[in-house]
Write a structure and sequence with these properties.
It is a single chain. By secondary structure, this protein is an alpha/beta fold. It has 13 helices and twelve strands. About 45% of the residues lie in helices and about 20% in strands.
Length: about 350
């Protein structure tokens, strides 16, 4: 299946096909110098498979985890491109999850003011969400994605077969992002999660999630309005992630927890059941006040106000602008009732 993300400039195809990674050379222009960026948590055979299909491959494996989205890794990869004489006619390929895609994409966006970038996501989270849309970034201190760019890939290659090597926790972690999109935009997808059949129908979950993300990005590429709905659960989620010092909870698990206080009580009860079916956390551990303080540094804050996404009914949502202190009190009250 091919989905085309239609943009005024730099539109591209998203190829969703089992076994596609073994045919990367058919779908991507690899007849040139190619920097393949992967991480230590990704089975090496995926990057090796892509490398075998390149004319001049250079494979770099960064440490697994959010900590690799930093200036030192960004500099190292830029120096690798420089030392291997990469030019604007060459490209970067990400083979991994969201961390690899964000890091490699920002390197591609920055080197020589932009060289071609391809994304081959290997986690559920990156396949349903982060691999498309053009957001690339690194972190600064404990603030996620604060240094980055909007830089669209030339093509995205999604192969659900690579998910077979993932442990269940990683699968559930990624499905949290699909739950997010179902609550804001797709009642049928949320019903699939409520049925408990989502993992068995993972191809359907990926496709429906991609269609939502594709539509939103086409309407609002630079996050000036509609695209903000994709932040549902992320404001508090990023605060939880930062307070955990990037250890403990995974990103999707933080988003799952961040969604709970941002929906009507009737929706919250249904969401709790879905999260439990998937094996996702439903209780925040640790210092909530520290998490709220970290969340107050989020990009969605403007002075003493914050923009948040609220779900009153599954499949629809609204963006609310609240005083930061009002939002914090709402979080405290909602979580105390769980």
């Amino acid at each position: 299946m091919v989905l085309h993300l239609d943009l005024p400039q730099n539109g591209y195809d998203i190829i969703l096909e089992r076994g596609a990674i073994s045919r990367a050379g058919e779908y991507l222009n690899l007849d040139r110098r190619v920097l393949i960026v992967t991480d230590s948590g990704v089975p090496a055979q995926y990057a090796e498979s892509v490398a075998k299909q390149c004319k001049e491959p250079t494979v770099v494996t960064v440490p697994e985890g959010e900590g690799s989205k930093c200036f030192s890794m960004f500099e190292m990869l830029c120096r690798k491109l420089l030392s291997h004489n990469f030019t604007r006619t060459d490209c970067v390929v990400a083979v991994g999850g969201g961390v690899v895609g964000d890091l490699a994409g920002f390197v591609a966006a920055s080197f020589m003011r932009g060289i071609d970038f391809y994304n081959i996501p290997t986690t559920v989270l990156s396949q349903v969400d982060s691999s498309i849309g053009g957001k690339v970034a690194i972190d600064l201190d404990d603030v996620k994605n604060i240094v980055g760019a909007f830089y669209q890939p030339k093509r995205v290659l999604i192969d659900p077969d690579v998910l077979s090597t993932l442990p269940h926790r990683q699968i559930a972690n990624g499905l949290a992002e699909a739950v997010k999109m179902s609550l804001t935009s797709d009642t049928e997808l949320f019903s699939l999660f409520e049925s408990g059949e989502a993992e068995k129908r993972i191809d359907t979950v990926i496709e429906r999630s991609l269609r939502i993300k594709k539509y939103v990005v086409e309407q609002d590429e630079k996050e000036m309005g509609l695209r903000r709905i994709l932040n549902f659960g992320h404001t508090l989620g990023h605060g939880i992630e930062a307070a955990e010092h990037l250890h403990g909870y995974y990103h999707g698990e933080c988003v799952a927890l961040g969604m709970l206080p941002m929906c009507a009580e009737s929706v919250r009860m249904r969401l709790l059941r879905v999260l439990k079916l998937l094996g996702l956390p439903t209780e925040i551990r640790g210092d909530l006040e520290a998490m709220l303080e970290n969340a107050s540094h989020d990009k969605k804050c403007a002075g003493k106000d914050i923009s948040v996404v609220w779900v009153e009914t599954p499949g629809t949502c609204e963006i609310r602008k609240l005083p930061l202190e009002t939002w914090k009190e709402q979080i405290r009250t909602s979580l105390s009732s769980l």
